[in-house]
Design a protein that fits this description.
There is one protein chain. The mean pLDDT is 96. The longest helix is centred in the first third of the chain and has 18 residues, at 28-45. The chain has twelve helices and 23 strands. It has two domains: 5-112 and 266-464, Aminopeptidase (3-Layer(aba) Sandwich), CATH 3.40.630.10; 114-249, Roll (Aminopeptidase i, Domain 2), CATH 2.30.250.10. It starts with a helix and ends with a helix. β12 (254-256) and β13 form a beta hairpin. A nine-stranded mixed beta sheet has the order 1-2-3-14-4-15-21-17-19, with helices on both faces. The chain is α/β, with parallel strands linked by helices and 465 residues long. Bound molecules: manganese (II) ion (MN) (2 copies). Residues 109, 269-270, 299, 342-343 line the site of one manganese (II) ion.
């Protein structure tokens, strides 16, 4: 059909992001769907930062990566990984150019909102054994009741060994659950605000109900649970004190919709950016610049701690790269560029009143570029420069990658942050770019397959610059 002059001018002058299906390259939808099968498998294997880190390292090793040794010299094309305490990982491919030209960084996080066990979690009440939790990251507490849960953790025993525990993921495994009140007796609970519908101290995980040796002694149910744990893993109640246990949904990733266009899963935030960033690093062969995918921990609690990006581990790693060629780290860092790969809220027609239609990110409109995040007048954010936005925009357009701009919610409706500001504070150009998510931070989040693939293409293209 021939375009009218008006249509022609509109096309030329208006910003009008389209559904990815309408602008995607021939045959790319099938490629995207195939890519997402790998992503779904990754999601089911990597529900915690520890599991994600070891899965990423396994993938890296299978693709020719070797463990980074500080002080060692590496030449162009060599692939190294750096394992930070089993909770964050850097994948790096040495570039053809000198390190003094800077490095290209894609930074995503591999921790997700969840429930952590308290240090002394196990107790018994009315012949029921329960675990006390302390939630991690921003959750709507009521969403965590009456759903199947699994328990993942690492226990450091006194002899120095570490026992990994994972219960509730195998088909035959038992699951756990947090109980909720029946509606018949919910009269008082209904009067609470939604935020307090379930309180933090009510997030107690049901783990058992039969006594040890059918005995009537006190705490026999708790004793029975401890005896099961001792038999299976060799640990006692005191060993909980030196353990990290995470309670996460026991759901598996699955397709959503009659058209299978979406994926539902726990932990899309931010594995939906971490996985594409990992794949982009694995596929990077002889890059021009040195490239790094940083898969970090602790983003959901503000990036503090030695495995989070507010710590210095990434800068120290770059220092080592700089030292290989006799430079100071800061000379390399200030010339480096970063894509802060994190999710954003997708426009939800059911809750449209908190989102601003012209600047919201939409599922299926491609990877979303967020110039800034933060809240309350751009508080607590790195605001990417027009120049850097321009550079990223040109890169995406030239490669025919479907993308859109995004802003997390209406002004003063709330907000959030990412690792971008910690990267920017090192004197690096950075912008947020990621996949829009429906029901973000819920135990079961939803994303579009085409957007996931566009994230992968964006990071791959960035590494080809
Ligand atoms: Mn995130
Ligand atoms: Mn988050």
């Amino acid at each position: 059909m021939e375009k009218t002059k008006i249509e022609e001018m509109k096309e030329k002058l208006f910003y009008n992001p389209k559904h990815a299906s309408c602008v995607i390259n021939e045959g790319e939808t099938e490629i995207a769907d195939g890519f997402c099968e790998g992503y779904k498998a990754f999601l089911d294997k990597a529900k915690t930062e520890r599991e994600a880190a070891s899965e990423i390292i396994a993938l890296a090793k299978a693709n020719g990566y070797v463990e980074f040794i500080p002080g060692e010299k590496y030449s162009a094309g060599e692939k190294v990984y750096y394992n930070n305490r089993g909770k964050s990982v850097i994948l790096c491919v040495i570039g053809k150019r000198s390190i003094i030209d800077g490095v290209k960084i894609a930074a995503a996080h591999i921790d997700s909102p969840r429930l952590d066990l308290k240090p002394n979690p196990l107790y018994e009440d009315t012949d029921i054994a329960l675990l006390k939790t302390h939630y991690y990251g921003g959750i709507k507490k009521y969403q965590w009741t009456a759903i199947p849960l699994s328990l993942h953790g690492a226990v450091a025993l006194k002899d120095g060994s570490v026992v990994n525990v994972c219960v509730g993921e195998d088909e035959e495994d038992p699951r756990f659950v947090i109980t909720d009140l029946l509606p018949h007796l919910g009269g008082e609970q209904y009067k609470r605000t939604l935020k307090d519908g379930i309180r933090g101290e009510e997030l107690n995980v049901l783990v058992g109900s039969r006594p040890f040796m059918n005995d009537e002694c006190s705490e026999a149910v708790k004793l029975n649970i401890l005896s099961i744990l001792y038999e299976k893993y060799g640990f006692t109640e005191t060993d909980f004190l030196s353990a990290e246990f995470e309670v996460v949904p026991a759901f598996r990733a699955c397709d959503i919709g009659f058209d299978r266009s979406m994926i539902g899963a726990y932990g899309h935030d931010d594995r939906v950016c971490a996985y594409p960033a990992v794949m982009a690093a694995l596929d990077a062969e002889n890059p021009e610049y040195t490239i790094m995918s940083v898969l970090t921990d602790k983003e959901e609690t503000g990036s503090d701690g030695n495995t989070g990006l507010h710590s210095s581990y990434m800068a120290y790693f770059i220092n080592y790269l700089a030292a290989m060629e006799g430079y100071d780290g800061y000379e390399v860092i200030r010339k480096s560029e970063c894509l802060s790969a994190d999710v954003t809220a997708a426009f939800d027609p059911t809750f449209s009143d908190v989102l601003e239609r012209r600047n919201a990110a939409y599922i299926n409109k491609g990877v979303a570029v967020m110039k800034y995040t933060g809240s309350g007048g751009k508080g607590g954010t790195s605001d990417a420069s027009a120049e850097y936005m321009g550079k990223v925009r040109t890169m995406l357009d030239n490669a025919n990658i479907v993308w859109q701009v995004g802003e997390l919610g209406k002004v003063d409706a709330g907000g959030g942050g990412t690792v971008a500001k910690y990267v920017a504070n090192l004197d690096i150009d950075v912008v947020d770019i990621g996949v829009p998510v429906l029901s973000m931070h819920a135990p079961f989040e939803t994303v579009s397959k085409l957007d996931v693939y566009m994230a992968y293409r964006a990071f791959s293209e960035f590494f080809k610059q």
